[in-house]
Amino acid sequence: MDASRETTAERLLDWYDAHARTLPWRAPPGTPAPDPYRVWLSEVMLQQTTVAAVKEYFAKFTRLWPSVSDLATAPDEEVMAAWAGLGYYARARNLLACAREVAARGGTFPETEAELRTLPGLGPYTAAAVAAIAFGARAVVVDANVERVVSRLFAIETPLPASRPEIRERTDDITPQARAGDFAQAMMDLGSGICTVREPKCLLCPLSEMCAARASGDPARLPVKAPKKAKPTRTGRAFWIEARIAGEDHVWLVRRAGKGMLGGMRALPDDGWAARQDGHGEDLAQGPWEPAGRVSHVFSHFALDLRLAIHAGASPPEDLGEGEWWPLEKLDEAGLPTLFAKAARLALAHTGEDA
DNA sequence: CAGCCGTGGGT
DNA sequence: TACCCAAGGCT
């Protein structure tokens, strides 16, 4: 057959058959589809998150909760703690809500893209990906990799995000009827390893002959993106309060509100930096406080300069409100998000407990 | 529709 | 170093 007459999908799938990445949640090309639970779990974890970061969490979740019904019956705090460090914690809240909806209908995921789309945490991308990868549906899967590859293939000059409708159209055009799941994963592998943001490896690309951006000589120029906003810096305070209870050292932890920054996660008490421009500076309880240094942390839309105060009184305050005394010995099991894990390391180094 | 929502790795 | 960005979803 004349190779020049092969479709984009045929070339890409041939390349995928030879070069597909081996991933814990993926079935090799040509083998039966993996458990929908594992496909769904991995896709949610992979939202805006790198493969390298997800691997460890995927292994932990599937070990702790081998099926969607197992996950559905897990306590909220255990799941949130297991997600700690992976970021975008609304995903974990939606993950549990979704697992419980699926468990309520017998532990079976719906198989159509439209039905999947109604589940919490499944947007246009994830619903299409699960339908195609787990159930073999012909769905049009568009993620950031596909946006980049398609923008270059067709030399789409319109900047993102305005170009999304056109990208979706073009992706629909080249998505095959059969093996749409492999096609989607092939596009992601291509975008991840070949058609990269900077210095794409066009010499290794199976689609280089049909790539308009390649022909233009400067494929890395695409996709054009709208300029992004500058990140402000906020300041805030967090509080480290220890007490010796039953012969063991404990620290006072709180549970953050169910929505907003780090929603639903265990945390150190703080002065409200998340809710406004800066923290209000107030202490949650009677001092005296000893400064223990600062933690710099960058979130998605602002940077935080957090000062840590250690309670220096002989005995802990009595008006602490809602929270729990957490044993220092098990601090790594508390499920603190990264900001507060950093603050805890600072406190322990300062008090000479450990590092 | 644009802002909110984490984190770590690459350059 | 500072910046870019990743298998997005929700409001």
Q: What keyword list fits this structure?
A:
DNA damage, DNA-binding, 13 helices, 3-stranded mixed beta sheet, iron-sulfur, alpha+beta, iron, 355 residues, Nucleoside Triphosphate Pyrophosphohydrolase, MIG/MutY, Adenine DNA glycosylase
Order of helices and strands: HHHHHHHHHHHHEEEEEEEH
Spans where pLDDT lies below 50 across 5 or more residues: none
> In the CATH scheme, what's the topology name of the largest domain?
Endonuclease III, domain 1
Query: Rg from C-alpha positions?
Result: 24 Å
Q: What's the name of the CATH homologous superfamily of the largest domain?
A: Hypothetical protein, domain 2
Family: Belongs to the Nth/MutY family.
Domain HhH-GPD: 45-193
Pfam family, one: NUDIX_4
Catalytic activity: Hydrolyzes free adenine bases from 7,8-dihydro-8-oxoguanine:adenine mismatched double-stranded DNA, leaving an apurinic site
